[in-house]
Structures are given as structure tokens and as C-alpha cells.
Amino acid sequence: MTHETSAPAPGAAQTPTCQLLARQAADYRGWWWVAPPRDPWLESGQGVAISADLAVRAAWQAAGRPAHSPFEPLPLDPQPAGDEEAPKGAVLFWPKSHALGEWWLLWLCATLPEGTPLQLVGENQGGIKRVLKVLAALGLGCRKLDSARRCSLFETRLGPVGIDPDAAWTAFEVEPDGVRLLLASHPGVFGHGKLDDGTRLLLETLRGALPPGEGRASGDGPGEGLGAVFGDVLDMGCGDGILAAWLARRGAAVTAVDVNAFAVEATRRTLAANGLAGEALSGEVLSGETLESDVYSALAGRTFDTIVSNPPFHQERAIDYGPAARLILEAPAHLRPGGQLLLVANAFLPYPDLLERAFGGFEILADDRRFRVYRAISPDCDSRSR
Fold this sequence. Notes:
Helix 9 (322-329) runs parallel beside helix 10.
């Protein structure tokens, strides 16, 4: 006798946190789902998604559900019908980054009316039980509603806490390869508060890997006037903007993209802090365009001379090669003939096979045993036509 495992019903909760929420007797119509995971139960149900993840918002919108970034105007005024109104309550999915969870909590207290019901849900191994101390420190009462699937659900009500969520933004100075830069940093953005070792290796390699030209380098210090970069460069997965700022300071016309709204905002702030956004005194428009984009989704048919990246390979605690695979496999379509993809990655990651598939070959420019810098060249016009 064989036993078949049935697939989840369409619209059934699949993630542990959503399975815990789905068994509640609560009426979640008119609620906000804050920092939610991808889950069909959420996307086919009620309420509004508030997410910094463009891919999550796009999935909700594709299903005809409202979804917003915390950096855009929010539906707080009463509307004639539907979900687009001040929420009756909110559910915060506690993230892996505890500091980011605290920011979401402060943001909700500053954004929604006092007394709005708030539920907090998360996996036990992700630190959800620590919210008890966080809420107590903010003077917010709390009670446990339920636990299952190694997850816990707590409930409180929002109130004034006297802490501006914008205080979570910090700045720190780095000087990679002789270029002094001020970086904006936010919890949940890759490299928060420090220069990642992989990014450092990529920066040390870039000067020799990029073609010389008459760039528009500006600024103080050893990097002034080097003009080491010429052409249009795409910074894929821009994080806090370190690569975009370094490249723009050396004269590149940089487009920086990330799926994370916090990263896009961090890069905007980094470029502005280094005088690399807006117009120079001469009236010249400086480099530094930033866009929310799920890999290449916002770039349509645009092409570049160079793509640089330190691509992510985690989604919360799970390893996820999907975005990096799309970055590599779709790169030739976004490179001009003879253009190059330059990326840094942990040495153990299986990117050589992807580079071979996409480009037919690659080279390793740097290897410190922990990280490798790869380069792959787009075919020229003649080879593309053959």
C-alpha cells in the first residue's frame, strides 16, 4: 500500500508563520501584513502588504492585491470601499535581523494611530521571543496568543514610544583603494555598518579590470582626477551604495539597482552624502541613478558596458541561488558587445557553471580563498552574428 502526499490546496498557507496565523479565529480583513513572506494564503486573502521587497509587492499586485513600500505614500485616509484605508490592525513578520524588526516596530508606532492592534509572528529560531523584552522596553504591553510549527504569535497595541525610526540610519566612513567615502547604513541592508570583505576584494580588483577613459572623477583625496572608469556601469544589488559611489567618484555613469527598498534608499543617501547625486556647480548632471528592480525587471532593454555585483545568496536563513543565477544568465542581454560582468562571490558557490553557460567562458581575477572575483566578457558583434 502506498501513501501519497497531497499538495497544498490553492491558497493554503505554506510557510510556518502563515500556517500559525491561518488557524487563528481573527478577522484579518482590513489589516496590514508588514514584511510578509511569499505565501499564497496571504496573496489570495485580505489586507494590504507593506514590504521593502519589490518581488513580494509585485507578487501581491499580480494577484490584484494592494502592496506598498514604507517609503511611498500609504493608504491611511478612509476610502469608500476595499482595503485602501487606515488599517484595523497590523501583523509584523519578525525578520532575521533583530535591528530591522525593531525599526519596523518603531515605524508602525510612528505611522499608525495609537491603540491599533499589532500581532508579531516569527520562527522561534529567528528570535521572535526576544520581542517580549523589546516591547517591555518601549512600554508596550504584550501577551502570547499561540505557538505552533516552531513559531510564536504575540499581541500588543501600538502607542507613542518617543523614538524616531529615522534614528536607525547611521553613517560610517571607509577608504577603499584610496577613495574616501561616507556610507549610509540601515538595519537589514547588506554590509550594515561595515565594509564586507568580498566587496573590499572586488574594489581592489576593479581598477585594473575596468577600461581606462576620460571619466568625470571628482572629489578629494587620492581618487581625484583618476578618470579610471569610462562608460555606463550597472551596480546590481547595490546594498549601501559602496560600489556605486566608488565607481561614480571615479567617473562612471552608474545605475544602481536593488530589490530591497532599504538598499535603494541607502544608496541614494550614500550618493548624496558624497556629492554624487544631483547637479555639480558646472551644471553637469552627476552619476548615480538608483532604482528598485528585481534583478533586471526595471531595466527593460537597457544595456551597459559593465555590470558589477556582490550578489546575495540568502533569503532570510535559507540559501537561495535564484537571484544570482538570473543575474548571470541574463547578463549577456544587458551588456553591449565586448562588455563585461564582474562579480565577487564566496569561493564555494557554484557560479562557474552558470558563467560557462551564459558566456561560454570566464576568468578568475582574484582569489583570497574565501572570495573570488570573476570576469566574463560578452561576445562581440561578429561572434554574436555567427
